[in-house]
Amino acid sequence: EPEVTQTPSHQVTQMGQEVILRCVPISNHLYFYWYRQILGQKVEFLVSFYNNEISEKSEIFDDQFSVERPDGSNFTLKIRSTKLEDSAMYFCASGLQRGEAFFGQGTRLTVV
Amino acid sequence: AQSVTQPDIHITVSEGASLELRCNYSYGATPYLFWYVQSPGQGLQLLLKYFSGDTLVQGIKGFEAEFKRSQSSFNLRKPSVHWSDAAEYFCAVGPYNTDKLIFGTGTRLQVFP
């Protein structure tokens, strides 16, 4: 069964460093998302991407964040200068139709 | 504001017992509705979804959910719980005019043998 894959599963970075989280969505999907879950809190929407551009973003998704789909298969989330409060589980998701999301296993980001 | 409420933070059932997890949403129109399950350290697995049509939706692993418009609810049910069902369950809504899903706070299910 096709699935969304994310790498790495765990990333530790120093405050102020840039990180790139990588995702390979399900191959025929058209909608791509990033969500995050801070430990013990709700899953929160960050950004959606469709037709090679951001279609929606949340207040969390400020100038420190960016997304890219560089080669038609990978979908990346970049955090330019990480803060302690960016520590969370980051989930990539994809869907064939709007509103549908199949999630990956997540990348646990720890900022120290 | 759009919101999702899962009133039960933690539920404990015996293996073989029936299960119902509650979910209520607040939104003007009927949104898309989802249930996800998350095992410890794992991602979110889609159990089932409701977009339109039949209000009783069948999902994977023997789960079903019923959409009740009058109650703004989308409760998840399973007739007989297995020990492997122990996990956290999240209800989510996707308003039709937006891409994002809004998640509830989750219900942690514990299953006793």
What attributes characterize this protein structure?
heterodimer, A: mainly beta, seven-stranded mixed sheet, 0% helix, B: 113 residues, mainly beta, six-stranded mixed sheet
Helix and strand arrangement:
The complex is a heterodimer of chains A (112) and B (113).
Chain A: E1 5-7, E2 10-13, E3 19-24, E4 31-37, E5 43-50, E6 53-57, E7 65-68, E8 75-79, E9 88-95, E10 102-103, E11 107-111
Chain B: E1 3-5, E2 10-14, E3 19-21, E4 24-26, E5 32-38, E6 44-50, E7 56-58, E8 64-68, E9 73-78, E10 87-94, E11 102-103, E12 107-112
Parallel strand pairs in B: 2-12
Antiparallel strand pairs in B: 1-4, 3-9, 5-6, 5-10, 7-8, 8-9, 10-11, 10-12
Q: Could you describe the 3D structure shown?
A:
The complex is a heterodimer of chains A (112) and B (113). In chain A, strands 2, 4, 5, 6, 9, 10 and 11 form a seven-stranded mixed sheet that branches. The radius of gyration of chain A is 13 Å and the shape is globular. Chain A has strands at residues 5-7, 10-13, 19-24, 31-37, 43-50, 53-57, 65-68, 75-79, 88-95, 102-103, 107-111. In chain A, strand 4 (31-37) and strand 5 (43-50) form a beta hairpin. Chain A has 112 residues and is mainly beta. Chain A has no helices and eleven strands. Chain B is mainly beta and 113 residues long. Helices cover 0% and strands 51% of the residues of chain B. Chain B has strands at residues 3-5, 10-14, 19-21, 24-26, 32-38, 44-50, 56-58, 64-68, 73-78, 87-94, 102-103, 107-112. In chain B, the strands form three sheets. In chain B, strands 2, 5, 6, 10, 11 and 12 form a six-stranded mixed sheet that branches. The termini of chain B are far apart. The mean pLDDT of chain B is 92. The chains are: A mainly beta (112), B mainly beta (113). Chain A binds chain B through residues 4, 31, 33, 35, 42-45, 48, 50, 55-56, 58, 91, 93, 98-106, and chain B through 32, 34, 36, 42-46, 49, 51, 90, 92, 94, 96, 98-106.
